[in-house]
């Protein structure tokens, strides 16, 4: 199948999660999250709504991402990156730090921590691993394990400018409010693609990897990253 080119930000919103309950603020604290992962309650992941771009040959490529929940005085935030425009996979998209599993990685947690350190300079010693969400199979042939971790300040970041164009944080409370979860649809001759999106307004000024300020507009969180955040919502709302 030929992958069609489209601009996800321009597509109309087909639906939102405004009819779903938000996750209570009391559940979005470090202690509450620790307890939630220890409980291992039953819950149902969000059905994958996007149609894969193509059939892949053989097994999907194994990968892991770190979902870094930064402990701030104002509440937890999610640390995200915007990928550089020249990358082969998911260029220019908002994503969690992460990447492919390497043979020397002991497990998905090791992959996620290593990739986070390589991409944004996050010291693994500042990360408290809580657990993982179910694997997410992307349409581009990656089987991704989302590893959830609390990031304890103080810490410093140094983005790899070859991979990361920008590093920013979004309040977890914003992302766990389903009213901010948009479902968008793209139709073309070969079929239809549906995906989640969670646009978040940019701060007045944020620093990119090269130190230049980025002004205004939205961080357009969509695709696999938004889908994994939606699963995190389902996990916490169960």
Tell me the CATH superfamily: Nucleoside Triphosphate Pyrophosphohydrolase
**Mean model confidence by pLDDT:** 87
The strand count comes to: 14
Overall CATH class? Alpha Beta
The gross shape turns out to be globular
CATH topology: Nucleoside Triphosphate Pyrophosphohydrolase
Structural domains: how many: 1
Radius of gyration: 17 Å
How would you spell out the order of helices and strands?
EHEEEEHEEEEHEEEEEH
What structural class do helix, strand and pairing data support? Answer: alpha+beta
Terminal CA distance: 37 Å
Number of helices: 4
Largest sheet: 8 strands, mixed
Q: Give the second-level CATH assignment, the architecture.
A: Alpha-Beta Complex
Low-confidence stretches: 86-91
Beta-strand fraction estimate: 25-35%
- In helices, the fraction of residues equals 10-25%
Describe this structure in words.
With 238 residues, the protein is α+β, with helices and mostly antiparallel strands. The protein has a single domain (15-49, 60-237), classed as Nucleoside Triphosphate Pyrophosphohydrolase (Alpha-Beta Complex), CATH 3.90.79.10. The chain has 4 helices and 14 strands. Residues 86-91 have low confidence and may be disordered.
């Amino acid at each position: 199948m030929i992958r069609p080119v489209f601009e996800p930000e321009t597509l109309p919103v087909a639906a939102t999660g405004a009819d779903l309950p938000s996750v209570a603020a009391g559940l979005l604290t470090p202690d509450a999250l620790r307890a939630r992962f220890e409980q291992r309650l039953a819950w149902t992941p969000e059905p994958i709504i996007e149609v894969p771009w193509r059939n892949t040959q053989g097994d999907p490529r194994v990968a892991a991402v770190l979902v870094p929940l930064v402990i701030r005085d104002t509440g937890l935030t999610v640390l995200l990156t915007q990928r550089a425009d020249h990358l082969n996979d998911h260029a220019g998209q908002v994503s969690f730090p992460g990447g492919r599993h390497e043979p020397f990685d002991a497990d998905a947690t090791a992959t996620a921590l290593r990739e986070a350190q390589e991409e944004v300079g996050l010291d693994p010693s500042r990360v408290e691993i809580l657990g993982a969400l179910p694997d997410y199979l992307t349409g581009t042939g990656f089987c991704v394990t989302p590893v959830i971790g609390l990031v304890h300040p103080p810490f410093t970041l140094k983005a790899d400018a070859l991979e990361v164009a920008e590093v920013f944080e979004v309040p977890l409370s914003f992302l766990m409010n389903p009213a901010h979860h948009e479902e968008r649809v793209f139709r073309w001759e070969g079929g239809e693609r549906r995906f989640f999106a969670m646009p978040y307004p940019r701060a007045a000024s944020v620093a990119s990897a090269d130190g230049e300020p980025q002004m205004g507009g939205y961080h357009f969180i969509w695709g696999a990253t938004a889908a994994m955040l939606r699963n995190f919502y389902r996990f916490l709302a169960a």
